[in-house]
Amino acid sequence: MEYARLGESGLKVSPASLGTMNFGPPGGVGVGSCDDAEALRIIDAFLDTGHNVIDTADAYTGGESERIVGRAIKRRRDAVVLATKAFLPQGPGVNDRGLSRAHLTRALDASLRRLGTDYVDLYQCHQWDPDTPIEETMATLDGFVRSGKVRYVGCSNFTAAQIVEAKWAAERVSGTPFVSLQHQYSLLARSSETELLSTSARHGLGTLAWSPLGGGVLTGRYTRDTAPDRTSRIGRLMDSSSPLARAWAGELLAEHNLTIADEVGDIAATLGSTPTAVALAWVRKRPGVTSVIIGPRTLDQLTGNLAGFTLDLPADLIARLDAVSARTVGA
Known about the structure:
There is one protein chain. The protein is an alpha/beta fold and 331 residues long. The chain has one domain: NADP-dependent oxidoreductase domain (TIM Barrel, Alpha-Beta Barrel), CATH 3.20.20.100. The protein has twelve helices and ten strands. An eight-stranded parallel β-barrel has the order 3-4-5-6-7-8-9-10, surrounded by six helices. It is globular, with a radius of gyration of 19 Å.
């Protein structure tokens, strides 16, 4: 297993990170539907392979994801790089969300209780907060590090400009800078190549790529001629009461995305592999990517995902994937 430093920190992380949005019943942010027993099996199997990053968030499945993760890693806590996130609403109050000192302090303590630990290895801002001065956020995070409750801090879904603002703010308050960025990255979504990856590298951030399978489109599960299974992620989005969710499902199944998926499938057949493994292998080898977040709901899916971290993609096949997905660079 080859581990990499996370940004300019000394923290070593594995090529794969285990995303836990699906752990627990539906609730809050996250699809849910992976019960406790299966989630525990997935976590144990993942750690047994030598991969060490487990990523969750206080908003995933109403906090149940954190509780499941905490129970699963209790006996092997020191072997885990435990990452969680905060920003999204945790109650009806006006201060129950965001990146203010008031909210982050309560959110971290609540996450630690659910996780059953006294520290988090990587505490991340789930998204930018336009209502809170970034200096307040960075000073608060620095206080967490000094208290020992947090080892390192990172961000998720920040723009290149916001990364720079956060770096400057940390310097102004003599605080702890971010060491990582979570960003969407797949053959269907390559916009991070325009600024995010280079900005992250220049300012000392490692990157963790989320949604590397393009919402499941790159697994070969969806076709032009068959309606999505209602139990699938896109099927559930289509059945959602949210217009935004239904619109997102339509965007995922756009013609150009299905064309990319066709090429992934053809290359998988050439290699005697699977579309899932090919799509993950492509992201894993992209310049600037430190770790790739996978989100299996079953033990079988975990096995299929991990195959992408040992698959060797020849240069000519990488070139084919680069070419078919080129229009998504600026998407």
